[in-house]
Specification:
Low-confidence stretches: 280-288
Number of domains: 1
Structural class: mainly alpha
Number of helices: 12
Helix content: over 70%
Order of helices and strands: HHHHHHHHHHHH
Number of strands: 0
Mean pLDDT: 80
Strand content: under 5%
């Protein structure tokens, strides 16, 4: 069943990138998103045809991800999804007309390779869909992740970082999506046997994380470069969820030296990819 879950994860990855590109095209022509006016901002976004199309595709991708998480460990599912980030290049250039420079290509390649390494360095014991978790670990992880997300949002408002506001908002959206994913993973283990668990706190956390990510990503796509914002949100989301799988659900990551070296290289590649993404493109967009 785990391998079936990973097939769902691959299908999710292939559709999620297209959804983000559609959202960017729609967000670019929609009225500016203002968090003080959430309903008006959301209505403006959905009146943009391409954003509505992207949202519909994203819902399908999310359903595929939930099925994957119910059948396979969270860390493996997110590693598979992240490893396909490099596939963003094909639809971005051929279907949406984005020009991707050498710096972005290197960044996408590094992120794909680095996050894929997290999958191949997982211990064999991780090959089961573990949904058991420690409540204290869940609270600690999600509290810390939310704090990081808020720091990223506030950092983007600083006058020295205004040129990279889209980058910070994309990363913040990714972290909040990671928080939501960890909550949904917990629900996949309780809802089948106890549907009333949907009324518990993790549903609320998942909804708040999803709504926060919705607005942060939409605004990030309006003020930042499409490729940079999409890549940073994807990287942040998958890293947060992989760490959540390890910290909250106890997904084993192996203990042999090769696995440790592989994980260190994986996170180094991800950090390098994130550092490459703030290119001159989003700076020009932000000033414009």
């Amino acid at each position: 069943m785990v391998y079936v879950g990973l097939l769902f994860a691959l299908a999710c990855a292939l559709t999620a990138q297209v959804a983000l590109l559609c959202k960017h095209r729609g967000a670019a022509v929609a009225p500016a998103v203002h968090i003080r006016h959430p309903l008006r901002s959301a209505a403006g976004l959905f009146r943009a045809k391409w954003f509505a199309i992207g949202f519909g595709i994203a819902l399908a991708a999310w359903a595929l991800q939930v099925m994957a998480m119910s059948l396979a460990p969270l860390s493996l599912v997110k590693a598979v999804i992240a490893g396909s980030l490099a596939l963003l290049v094909v639809p971005a250039q051929r279907w949406f007309g984005h020009r991707i420079g050498r710096r972005e290509l290197i960044g996408l390649g590094l992120s794909g390779v680095g996050l894929a390494l997290l999958a191949v360095t997982m211990h064999n014991a991780a090959m089961h869909a573990n949904s058991d978790y420690s409540t204290s670990a869940m609270i600690a992880f999600e509290s810390g992740a939310v704090a990081i997300g808020l720091m990223l949002v506030l950092s983007g408002r600083h006058e020295r970082a205004v040129a990279h506001t889209g980058i910070f908002l994309g990363a913040a959206a990714g972290v909040m999506l990671g928080v939501a994913d960890v909550s949904v993973k917990a629900l996949t283990g309780t809802v089948p046997g106890d549907p009333m668990s949907l009324l518990g706190p993790w549903t609320l956390v998942a909804l708040l994380g999803g709504v926060g990510a919705f607005f942060a990503l939409a605004r990030g796509l309006q003020v930042g470069g499409a490729i940079q914002v999409i890549a940073l949100s994807t990287i942040a989301s998958n890293v947060a969820a992989v760490l959540g799988g390890i910290i909250v659900f106890g997904d084993p990551v192996g203990g042999d030296p090769l696995a440790i070296i592989g994980r260190v290289l994986a996170f180094a590649a991800v950090i390098g990819a994130a550092a490459l993404m703030p290119s001159p493109a989003p700076r020009a967009a932000a000033h414009a």
